[in-house]
Specification:
Number of helices: 11
Largest sheet: none
């Protein structure tokens, strides 16, 4: 669903207006704390469009959530694909892995409610889009440090960057984001050993 920094497909003007209204209403519902009640029916009602329009455009709630995280996700992808080091090219692979994981934690925390909703969706939604891009990038970096098992290691490093786990660590265990990042530093050092 989310292209890797691809250009958006051209849309009819009315379709673009409807899409924007839908996104704005959904974003407002989330900002107002109505995350749990985010339904395509409610969004359609708030955007004054037919529910069929919302379903055709986004497919399901996970599709709408992916659309809501799209802009920030594109900026994040641009940073690790073409931005300055250490997140972007130019730093040694181990430094890039650390910087990428730290930036990804910040990325998920920044839109935690949306990532929580995405994780509640079907596995195809959770493991496609951003996850697939993050996995591909991280596996490529890991292959430069430790070629054997890079795909598995990428999954193993991405698994704890779950919105539900991050919220639990922060809100229940009282861990700061910096403490969570320090845990990842220890984990990545063990991989290099």
């Amino acid at each position: 669903m989310l292209p890797i920094l691809g250009q958006p497909q051209p849309e009819r003007a009315d379709a673009a207006r409807n899409r924007q209204k839908i996104i704005e209403v959904a974003a407002k519902m989330i900002a107002d704390g109505s995350v749990d009640q985010l339904s395509l029916d409610e969004v359609a009602r708030g955007a004054c469009v037919g529910v069929g329009t919302v379903y055709r455009r986004f497919g399901d709630r996970a599709g709408l959530v992916l659309a809501l995280i799209d802009d920030r996700e594109r900026r994040f992808q641009a940073a690790f694909l073409n931005g300055p080091p250490p997140v972007g090219p130019g730093a040694p692979p181990a430094e890039r892995i650390r910087a990428f994981l730290h930036a990804l934690i910040d990325r998920v925390v920044e839109q935690l409610d949306l990532f929580l909703l995405l994780e509640l969706g079907p596995p195809a939604a959770r493991l496609s889009g951003p996850y697939r891009v993050h996995h591909t990038h991280l596996a490529a970096l890991l292959a430069q440090v430790r070629p054997e098992g890079a795909d598995f290691l990428a999954d193993a490093l991405l698994a704890p960057i779950s919105a539900h786990l991050l919220r639990h660590q922060r809100d229940v265990r009282g861990m700061s984001v910096e403490e969570i990042k320090a845990g990842f530093d220890a984990l990545t050092q063990a991989i290099r050993a």
